[in-house]
Design brief:
Elements: H1 5-16, E1 22-24, H2 37-40, E2 44-45, H3 55-77, E3 84-92, H4 95-110, E4 116-118, H5 120-123, E5 136-146, H6 148-161, E6 165-167, E7 171-177, E8 180-185, E9 190-193, E10 196-198, H7 202-208, E11 217-228, E12 245-248, E13 251-256, E14 264-268, E15 272-273, H8 279-286, H9 294-297, E16 300-312, E17 319-324, E18 327-331, H10 337-360
Parallel strand pairs: 1-6, 3-12, 10-18
Antiparallel strand pairs: 2-5, 3-5, 4-5, 7-8, 8-9, 11-14, 11-16, 12-13, 13-14, 17-18
Helix pairs in contact: 1-6, 1-10, 3-10
């Protein structure tokens, strides 16, 4: 249940593995839910610059980077397009951040990861596009950015071409019934299956609570902007070594020269606990954290959107757990739903395969 990027990734992979899959989401036949976390995402894949070097989070990120490359190639071979721009540049705004970048780069290089430190002279090649106050940058060629909406459209279209059944229904309850799982939908319809995968964000926690499972999550609102640059004849995004995304003081700048007019970009996303958007946070976002960029000040807002990222309470994100035989939680990805979707889907597929093997030999 849930047709965000994680739910669609799971449905697509299970369908390819030969399972009969039903995808359940009330917004399947219309516009996405206004609070959808996937639609608030900018699609920045921050894997090899992750601050930890071991543990589940690190392993999921590295596996997802591998899988996204494979998935994009597989989907494009079927005629589906997913715009992807390689490279990620983290800019240092102060001395402490620069030191962290230096330590991380040295550590990763000893392990064979191709991270690079860019000094101010190197950054000068990308001026006037970057904040002048940047002291340096940590560049990761293996990370990057993809278009989340187009990725979700490609996953759904390909899965449906191969037999995925979609239900534009809202689940209101999940229960055991005659050895199966039964999902009760608003309006009275009931769907039964030997297994259910919950990928519906904060709503996932509400569905399992009556079953005695407590995995609470809280929404963290994120606002994002699509801007169009002022119509200056000699303006263009530099092609030479321009990364797929730039991060400055926690804000992602994503050039989108592939969009209409060739002078658009994305900025995002804010971190606002709860569900109410803050105008001051949006204003700070539009200024890119006081980046002092003349060209950014002259840009006009083309589109503004927001969504709620599900953050687990007192648990590490994401929540990947088999709660009961046949009942699987794959939600609570917080800010990394797009990045971690492939590895999460692979984990779900492995759990279901083990369940099927156990059933075959029981």
């Amino acid at each position: 249940m849930g047709a965000g990027v994680v739910g669609l990734s799971i449905a697509w992979l299970l369908q390819r593995q030969g399972h009969a899959v039903r995808l359940l989401d009330p917004c399947l036949n219309g516009p996405p839910a206004a609070d959808s976390g996937s639609w608030a995402a900018l699609g920045v894949l921050m894997g090899q610059v992750f601050h930890r070097s071991n543990g589940r989070g690190w392993r999921l990120r590295q596996r997802s980077l591998e899988l996204w490359r494979e998935w994009i190639a597989a989907l494009e071979a079927q005629g589906h397009s997913i715009p992807y721009r390689p490279g990620l540049l983290l800019l240092a705004s102060d001395g402490k951040e620069l030191e962290r970048h230096q330590r991380l780069c040295e550590e990763r290089q000893t392990k064979g990861f191709p991270l690079e430190l860019w000094d101010p002279a190197k950054l000068q090649n990308l001026q006037p596009h970057l904040p002048k106050a940047a002291l340096g940058g940590l560049y990761s060629p293996a990370d990057g950015q993809l278009d989340p909406a187009m990725a979700m459209a490609a996953l759904r279209a390909d899965a449906e071409q191969h037999g995925l059944i979609s239900h534009a229904k809202e689940a209101v309850a999940v229960e055991r019934h005659n050895g199966q799982w039964r999902v009760q939908c608003r309006g009275g319809e009931r769907l039964e299956s030997p297994w259910v995968v919950l990928s519906a964000g904060v709503l996932s926690a509400a569905l399992i609570e009556p079953l005695g499972h407590a995995l609470p999550m809280e929404p963290v609102l994120g606002q994002a902007l699509e801007l169009e640059l002022a119509d200056e004849p000699d303006w263009q995004w530099p092609d030479w070594e321009w990364p797929g995304a730039v991060v400055w003081r926690g804000i992602n700048l994503v050039p989108r020269p592939d969009l209409q007019g060739g002078k658009r970009l994305w900025l995002g996303a804010t971190l606002e606990p709860g569900t109410k958007a803050c105008p001051e946070a949006l204003a700070a976002l539009q200024a890119m954290g006081n980046a002092d960029l003349d060209w950014l000040g002259g840009a006009s807002v083309v589109r503004q959107w927001q969504g709620h990222r599900p953050r687990p309470n007192q648990r590490p994100a994401p929540l990947l757990e088999q709660l009961e035989p046949g009942l699987i939680m794959a939600s609570g990805h917080y800010r990394n739903g797009v990045l971690l979707a492939p590895a999460s889907a692979e984990w779900v597929g492995q759990v279901i395969s083990k369940l099927d093997e156990t059933s075959d030999h029981s």
